[in-house]
Design a protein that fits this description.
The protein is 33% helix and 33% strand. With 169 residues, the chain is α+β, with helices and mostly antiparallel strands. The chain has one domain (6-167): Hotdog Thioesterase (Thiol Ester Dehydrase, Chain A, Roll), CATH 3.10.129. The strands form 2 sheets. Strands 2-4-5-6-3 form a 5-stranded antiparallel beta sheet. 26% of the residues are buried.
């Protein structure tokens, strides 16, 4: 039976706010990257669950790029959206920006791509529904997600070949 897909808009998380407090700061007085990673991972899982209707586990983080530091008192705004779904896995794009204030413009803090797997009641991978792209931006992210996936698969194959060659030495 063919599963009906969901649109990016149906499952995205738009504008999750987080204010940076003193306990979030490193010795450089900027937010710990790990704090942003933690929030991003939780939102990626929530986005994937909204899409699949199932509990989802993070399989890997393909890319996480910190673009500018964030300071105490700033408000971070997180965005999460499914870029593409394959079988049981989904790529979730995460973007984090600072809120615009009277004294400063908004700026991009982080860009990341998480791959999550939809799980059944036995914690085994289970098929998820397709993503339906509607805008040009969503279609671009959909295509780019496939390029990243193919690169990951190729890298995994190369690593396996090297591992086997090393075993044969």
């Amino acid at each position: 039976m063919e599963q009906k897909g969901k649109t990016v808009q149906e499952t995205s998380i738009e504008g999750h706010h987080y204010e940076i407090y003193p306990q979030d700061l490193n010795s450089n007085n900027t937010v710990f990257g790990g704090r942003i990673m933690e929030i991003a991972d939780m939102l990626a899982a929530a986005c994937a669950k909204k899409h699949s209707g199932k509990t989802c586990a993070t399989l890997l983080v393909d890319s996480m790029r910190f673009l500018s530091p964030a300071q105490r008192g700033e408000i971070l705004i997180f965005y999460a959206a499914i870029n593409r779904a394959w079988g049981s896995s989904m790529e979730v794009g995460i973007k984090v920006v600072t809120a615009q204030t009277p004294d400063s413009d908004s700026r991009k803090v982080l860009s990341a791509f998480f791959t999550l797997v939809s799980l059944d009641q036995f914690n085994k991978p289970t098929k998820t529904v397709p993503i339906i792209t509607e805008t040009q931006e969503e279609k671009r992210r959909f295509e780019e997600a496939q390029v990243r996936r193919e690169a990951r698969i190729e890298m995994a194959q190369l690593k396996e070949e090297r591992r086997q060659q090393n075993e044969n030495l």
